[in-house]
Amino acid sequence: MSTPKIPSPGKIFLSILSAKWEKFWPALLLTLEKKWGKADYLSDLIPFSQTKYYDAELGTPIFRRVLSFSNLIPLDQLVSLKQFTNQLEQLNLQNNNRIFNLDPGIITYERLVLATGKNFTHRIYLKEGIFADLTLIYTKGKWQTLPWTFPDYATHEMQQHLTNIRNIYRQQLQNK
User: Fold this and answer.
1) In which element (H, E) is residue 90 found?
2) pLDDT, tens digit, for every residue of 49-87?
3) Where exactly are the structural domains of the chain?
């Protein structure tokens, strides 16, 4: 018989996509830090060209920024992360279009799990319309893609950012 045990908290991860950074940055960062603590990882802008899925809504060219935050959270708070980012997207609509796309998730030693409102075969329903997407696993010293991993998360550049965030997370847990 297994004995239930509460896992260690996870590290908040956020990917932001936009073609209109000048309209909301750095004000959005201040809002995020008020909610989740100081950003402890902040990438430069990264060109986003793996898909044209967001072009019509966000405009072009789209750039991504990857962030993590100092506060660690219980893993069961993934739903509240997504609800908060959905609210921010709605509050910042222009002409009924998002000016940014926020993809929150949680990084642990073992994985990156993103939150989504879209169902798919590999996604696990959590509650209130939010699903968990196991996007990458960390094993044998590196990130491993899965058959459904988004192409942009399969890139070496993205995985390097994730490794940097995972290293900050490891240090945080060691210092507890």
Assistant:
1) helix 78-91
2) 888 999 999 999 999 999 999 999 999 999 999 999 999
3) 10-174
pTM for this entry: 0.95
User: Sign (positive/negative) of CA torsion 102, 24, 26, 30?
Assistant: negative
Q: What is the mean pLDDT of residues 35-45?
A: 98
Distance CA 90, CA 67 (A): 20
Residue 8 corresponds to which amino acid?
S
Q: Taking the CA atoms of 47, 135, 172 and 89 in sequence, report the sign of the dihedral they define.
A: positive
Task: Output the six-digit token pair for 163.
Answer: 């490794």
Rounded Cα distance, 168 and 40, in Å: 8
Helix (H, G, I), strand (E, B) or coil at 175: coil
And the tokens for 15? 């990917």
Q: Answer yes or no: CATH 3.30.70 is held by domain 10-174.
A: yes
